[in-house]
Write a structure and sequence with these properties.
Belongs to the TfdA dioxygenase family. Keywords: Dioxygenase, Iron, Metal-binding, Oxidoreductase. This protein is of the alpha+beta class and about 375 residues long. Helices cover about 15% and strands about 25% of the residues. It is built from seven helices and 21 strands. The longest helix is centred in the N-terminal third of the chain and has 14 residues. The protein is globular and about 60 Å long.
Length: about 375
Amino acid sequence: MSGTTTNTVTVSAPDVLQITPLENAPFGARIILPAYAQDPADLNEDDFQRLYKAVHEYLVVVLPDLAELKPSSQYQLTKRFDPTCEGAYGHSKEFRHEKSVLRRDGHSTPAQPQVQILGQGRHDGHAGVPDLLLRHPTHMSFHHDPLSDDDMANGYTRFYRWHIDSALYGLAPPVVTTLLGIDCPVDKSQKIRYEDTGEEITTAKATTAFASGAIAFDNLSDEDKEFALNTTVVYAPHPYIFISPAKATSDGLTMVSEGKELPLDELPEWEQSKVKRLPLVWTNPVSGKHHMQVHGCCIWKLETPNGTLELEEARNTIHRLMRPNISPDRIYCHDWNQGDLVIFFNRGVWHSVTGQFEEGGHRLMHQCNIASAVDPVCKK
């Protein structure tokens, strides 16, 4: 009797948190948890500080094989990045307002309401939510000139909306967002065409795209750097309601100016003191780098050294500054695998949903970000 013996190589988990830069990407890193911490909420202080530093330096980090992570752990981990936060979800209750452009983008987990359930399709009973029906946001209902049916049938899609996770009214922007892929089937790729240059990129279906605010700032001309360092962005009161009748540009960077925004006297009651006035450049507290950080769809005005730019001119200016930094060689598109936990420095990157699902498609994710008690600053 004869046979063969197969030697199995077992790779043990490291003793401390391991960080490996992503290959073929302009930024980002992969994180392997230490053996003692199968749950990242259980990291000791030394390893959490390694993770904290990595998020601020690499901007987007990926922790694999965490599909079973509990919402309570995701919340505790997210909150740990900002000792000032008090636990309020980053968009507050306005996320669900009937006129908000965000109203259909997620559902709170009952046991941990700061954690949002995102995805596509029906997921009955998930996290104790009966009859859960999710809708993946797509450009078709948000862009001024969406792709044709033929383009979409041929596999084309768009960046939906480049943004920073933040209410941008009353609350300070979250420091980080955590995004967990629980069920992320990928059965085909999709293509994004840059309509102004003709460039194309091919990605897995419904990737999350990231752009670095540090790269954006570094690539400004000296004149534009001086402008950016001395400009304040004024966001509209209740911005996601303000823009709800308007439509976005085809690259998802800002809105088309047609005078369709909701008049201020038709908005929910608002206070001048809660209108967010944030610097156009935010300084990274770990690396010291400047990041051009702006939510182009929600801007209202720009206060510049030479005066105030009103809505349309403000949008045109921000679009000019932002557009080069979503070019193919400057972005990272994360192709989701089941169990990926992505942590990104929300004060250092912009991000966008991509893609659309066919009838009957499904995906399931958990997202968490928590409003800070302190606004970002620019240290010139």
